[in-house]
Design brief:
- It holds the Pfam family Lipase_GDSL_2.
- It comes from Luteibacter yeojuensis.
- Residues 1-19 form the signal peptide.
- The protein is an alpha/beta fold.
- The chain has helices at 2-16, 31-42, 51-56, 73-76, 101-111, 126-129, 138-154, 175-178, 181-198, 205-209, 229-247; strands at residues 67-71, 91-95, 119-123, 158-162, 201-203.
- α5 (101-111) runs parallel beside α7 and α7 (138-154) runs parallel beside α9.
Length: 252
């Protein structure tokens, strides 16, 4: 059954993806690879990742300023693998490493809306640019970000939407090939304009983390993509300032 599902998935994927962007599946996958492939086939948006945590999370207390952070590995690692994640504050991390905006959109109800936050901070798009779940256009990424925003606002949740971080090639080769700086800048320009047009709070990580080359400052990352402790120290006050601003405004 596994082999049949794997073949069908591979054929369907290959039929719609240009050769340069196709994921090559191993002919004889290891146990870990089989587990990962089965998981992706059975739970593509990874709804199971936080299912138990969400069920165990009590509703916000009266006056509690709950905030949910929605994102990919940059959010996922925040306070778990690197740095600290707003100690003492009722903030909930719902990042999942490697995810793209269509995956986040599918799990947005379970991992954001159902938790009844007052504010959601959205940081997403870098893995779409890298083609983690297949090639994406900027228009498709923008539509997914707008849809998450619409869902949040329909439930009275204020939205803070963040610019993507820059990347660099200083340690890991081809980071800027997978995530071209000009594409990051183009998406960030749209996010900034969209936030202004829709009266959202814009969290500008990019400007604080970019160097004179137009790449991620060396001292803020150990791999050219993910923040290190110093990187999260730059991001934390920017996120907190945006959250404070969001609480001062109307979500609609």
């Amino acid at each position: 059954m596994f082999r049949t599902c794997l073949i069908l998935a591979a054929c369907l994927f290959a039929a719609n993806v240009p050769a340069a962007n196709r994921i090559v599946l191993p002919e004889h996958p290891s146990a870990d690879q089989r587990k990962d492939i089965e998981h992706r086939l059975n739970d593509w948006p990874d709804l199971g990742r936080y299912a138990k945590d969400n069920a165990a999370l009590a509703p916000p207390k009266p006056g509690e300023k709950r905030v949910v952070f929605m994102g990919d590995s940059i959010t996922d690692f925040w306070g778990r693998s690197v740095g600290t994640f707003f100690p003492g504050r009722p903030y909930v991390n719902r990042g999942i490493s490697g995810q793209t905006t269509p995956q986040m959109l599918i799990r947005f109800r379970a991992d954001v809306i159902a938790l009844k936050p007052a504010v959601v901070v959205i940081l997403a798009g870098t893995n779409d640019i890298a083609g983690n779940t297949g090639p994406e256009t900027l228009a498709a990424i923008e539509d997914n970000l707008a849809s998450m925003t619409d869902l949040a606002r329909a439930h009275g949740i204020r939205v803070a939407i963040a610019s993507l971080m820059p990347v660099n090639d200083d340690v890991v080769k081809d980071q800027t090939v997978q995530r071209p700086p000009e594409t990051i800048r183009a998406l960030n320009a749209w996010i900034k304009a969209y936030a202004a047009r829709e009266h959202l709070v814009f969290v500008d990580y990019y400007t604080a983390m970019v160097d004179e080359r137009g790449q991620l400052k060396k001292e803020l990352s150990d791999d050219g993509l993910h923040p290190n402790a110093a990187g999260y120290e730059v991001m934390s006050p920017l996120a907190q300032s945006a959250i404070d601003k969001a609480f001062g405004g109307d979500p609609r």
